[in-house]
UniProtKB/TrEMBL annotation:
InterPro entries: Homeodomain-like_sf, HTH_AraC, HTH_AraC-typ_CS, RmlC_Cupin_sf, Tscrpt_reg_AraC-type_HTH. PROSITE patterns: HTH_ARAC_FAMILY_1 (PS00041), HTH_ARAC_FAMILY_2 (PS01124). Residues 168-265 form the HTH araC/xylS-type domain. The lineage of its organism: Bacteria, Pseudomonadati, Pseudomonadota, Betaproteobacteria, Burkholderiales. This is AraC family transcriptional regulator. Gene3D superfamilies: Homeodomain-like (1.10.10.60). The keyword Endoplasmic reticulum does not apply. Keywords: DNA-binding, Transcription, Transcription regulation. It comes from Turicimonas muris. PANTHER family: HTH-TYPE TRANSCRIPTIONAL REGULATOR NIMR, TRANSCRIPTIONAL REGULATOR-RELATED. GO terms for molecular function: DNA-binding transcription factor activity; sequence-specific DNA binding.
Length: 266
């Protein structure tokens, strides 16, 4: 089940505090679901990194998925709202705008390299803030430098439906490999709606046909499996592609490169 923020943030944390240069924390417990998600903004820039489960970012122009080991970056002042699955684990980092000048000035989804991800986990676990010590400040400076070099996920990847019923359907398809073999007829029957209604709602919510939406779901699973260290072949079959070749073709169409190149260079 997906739940929009606000999440249960640390009591002492204020994302609009003028004292923040750079700090992070882990979120594992969400508040009760509210519908629809409410857009909000902060005076600090926000980076939300998916560590486990399924997460997405809602912006004024739409809703996009954020796979495991990837992050959603929202510059200060950006209206946004996060959406998490019930098993999600997300690490947040907030930055003073002056400290994050190297980062994009528009919302982006970033693919984090292993070193950056581990450094962010470290500063979060140790509660290290910029300015606490020379050591912690240098760590945060390196993190920002590395984030600025991150691969950006294309906007055509994983547009998601805001409709609550379709959101739940999306999470189910990501979580359950058997679901990814279902046809539009199967899904419409399970939802007790006509196939035509299903296709219309998906198109209205994502701009995608059912077939295109299903490929995006499979790519989401595939890229998450690659980030976990799986081979291209393993990721292809885990995602639900018939063979590695079809995974490679779909991946290249969206990302402009092959899964093997992506795996080696991210």
């Amino acid at each position: 089940m997906t739940k929009p923020f606000p999440a249960k943030w640390p009591k002492e944390f204020d994302p609009n505090s003028s004292s923040i240069s750079a700090e992070s924390f882990l979120i594992e417990q969400m508040t009760e679901e509210a519908s629809p998600p409410k857009l909000h903004r902060h005076t600090t820039g926000q980076l939300s990194i998916t560590l486990n489960g399924h997460a997405g970012i809602v912006l004024q122009e739409g809703y996009w998925g954020v796979p495991v080991a990837c992050a959603a970056w929202c510059p200060a002042g950006t209206y946004h709202c996060g959406v998490l699955s019930s098993n999600a684990q997300v690490l947040f980092a907030h930055f003073d705008p002056k400290f994050s000048l190297l980062l994009p000035n528009v919302p982006q989804r970033l693919v984090l390299n292993s070193m950056t991800l581990e450094m962010l986990k470290h500063v979060s676990q140790k509660k290290l803030k910029y300015g606490d010590s020379n050591h912690s400040s240098k760590l945060w400076e390196v993190i920002v430098q590395e984030l600025s070099l991150s691969t950006v996920l294309p906007k055509i990847f994983a547009p998601l439906p805001l409709n609550p019923e379709l959101r739940r359907l999306t999470e189910q398809f990501i979580s359950d490999a058997d679901c990814r073999n279902k046809t539009a007829t199967d899904v419409a029957k399970a939802l007790n709606i006509s196939e035509r209604t299903l296709r219309r709602r998906l198109l209205e919510n994502t701009g995608l046909t059912f077939a295109e939406w299903l490929v995006q779901i499979k790519l989401w699973v595939g890229i998450s499996e690659l980030r976990k260290g799986k081979s291209v072949e393993e990721a292809a079959y885990e995602a639900g592609f018939l063979n590695p070749s079809s995974f490679i073709v779909a991946f290249k169409k969206v990302f402009g490169t092959t899964p093997s190149y992506f795996k080696r260079n991210v």
